[in-house]
Structure formats: C-alpha cells, structure tokens
Amino acid sequence: MVFLTRIEHFNAAHKLYNPQWTREKNEEVFGACANENWHGHNYELYVTVKGDPDPDTGFLMDVKKLSNIIKERVTEKLDHKNLNVEVDFLKGKMCSTENLVEGIWNQLNGQLPASVSLHCVKLYETPRIFVEYFG
Amino acid sequence: MERKVAIFRKEHFNAAHRLFVPGWTDEQNLETFGKCSNPHYHGHNYELIVKVTGSPDPETGYVINLSTLSDIIQQHVMAKFDHKNLNLDTREFARLNPTAENIVIVIYDILRKQLDASLDLSVRLYETERNFVEYPV
After folding, report:
1. Per CATH, domain A2-133 is 3.30.479.10
2. pLDDT at residue number B1
3. Number of cross-chain residue pairs from A and B with Cβ atoms under 8 Å apart
4. CA 20 to 30 Å from A23, out of A2, A67, A84, A87?
5. Which domain holds residue B55?
6. Could you give the ipTM of this predicted complex?
7. Tens-digit pLDDT profile for residues A67-107
C-alpha cells in the first residue's frame, strides 16, 4: 500500500455566521470571524489517495489526472470565490474549515479510478490551523 | 564607527478584498483583474514583515524594543485590517484599489509616522507564498 498526495491551493472569502442567531450572539461565538463583510484566507489543500502501484506503470494513478479531478471538482468552485455565497456544495452549511474539508471529501470520493481509494483530505486555513478528514 | 543593524518583526492578518476600478464596466475589470475582480470578494492570509534599521542604543543594545514595535503594528495595522474586508471596512481602501502594491505603501505610511526619524523602515507584504511586494525600493 502506497499513499500519494497532491497539494493544491485556493484563495477565498468567508465568514462564520449563523443566520439563525443575532449579530451579538454571532460575534460572541465567532469573534472577528463573524465580520458581516467577510474576511479571507489562502487555503492549502492536501489530497491523499492510497493503493498499490500498477505493475506496468509503477503508478498508483496518473497524478496529472488526480490534479485535473481536484481542479474540476474542487478548486475551480472555490478559488477566488465567496464560500458562503457562491459554492453549490456548501449551500446551507456553516463555512467552517471542518465543514469545508468534509464537503471537499464528498466532491472527490467516487470520482477516482478504481485502482485507488481516497485516504485523507487535509486543509490548511492558515499556516497554523488545519483540519483532516478520513471519511 | 556607527554600525547599523536591521531588526525584523513578522505579523499576519486575514482579509477579504476585491480588485476593481469603479468607473469601469464588469467586462473591463474582468479583463484586467481576472478572478480577483469577483464582486463577491475573495481573501488572503497576508504575511507582513517590517524591517527597522538603525544603530543599537549604547545603553540598551536595542535598535528598537521589539515589544514596542509589535504593539505599534498591532495597534495601527492589525486592528485596522485583520478579519476585515479591505474595500468595505477600511477608510484607507474606500477609494484606493487594495492591490498588494497599494497595501504595502499604506502600511509603510502608517508605520513611518509611528517610528523615530532616526530609524529606517522597509515593509514586505506577502499576499500568497508566491506573490509579495516590498516598499520602499
């Protein structure tokens, strides 16, 4: 079993704001992240797949193909976007890094060749804050 | 002989912004600024490196007390820009396009006023790991 990771990045705006709550309660719970006019991040995304190398190619999968799947299913939908407003797979969800990583997993799972399976999606919101999801 | 030393302080802030010229059409803005002109904004983790150059004080050995420098940056830069929308929430960029170039000049001007005239100042700003600017040059 070998693990293969592709790193991508995207820049996006968001806010942490529960529309069911008052502004005061949002500020109390989410602090500066609740700013109504948004703030933003440079997100770093690590997608890890696992499997056995193909005896003919030596590859788990064509990593260019993995890059294209991530681009099409994830980064094109998120890069230079407002996560609360513009992303179909986050509609109705709180835009926390936790929910975002789970949403990204669901966008990728089932899209990969049969030879590999998705192992981990790791997402950095800042260089000091990241989440991991293993499905 | 006067020996000058440069001392650096790194800070970071997260902000949303949009690059656009208000008098232009959406098409013109898209052509020039690409996806950075998205009307719904996008955002960055900005890394700020402040460089102060001067001669160490003969008594303290300091060019500037780093705690003082940190407080100045916090009070005059971070408090204005961190977790803000640069276009909507700041006076500085209400009418000035918040490109990395303009942001670094604005931060320089803010800090310059707070530092002793005997100290030289230079500011570097990373918008992403791969895109950064420096002022003055």
Report:
1. yes
2. 63
3. 75
4. A87
5. 5-135
6. 0.86
7. 999 999 999 999 999 999 999 999 999 999 999 999 999 99
Cβ atoms of residues A13 and B40 within 8 Å = yes
SS (H, E, C) B11-69: EEEEEEECCCCCCCCHHHHHHHHHHHHCCCCEEEEEEEEEEEEECCCCCCCCCCCHHHH
Number of domains in chain B: 1
pLDDT at A18 over 80: yes
- Write down the domain spans for chain A: 2-133
CATH number at residue B84: 3.30.479.10
Pick the residue of B12, B18, B40 with the most A CBs within 10 A to test the interface with A by mutation: B40
Asked if the C-beta of B76 comes within 8 angstroms of chain A's C-beta atoms, the answer is: no
Residues of chain B with pLDDT under 50: none
pLDDT over 70, % of chain A:
100
DSSP string, A71-120: IIIIIHHHTTEEHHHH-GGGTTS---HHHHHHHHHHHHTT-S-TTEEEEE
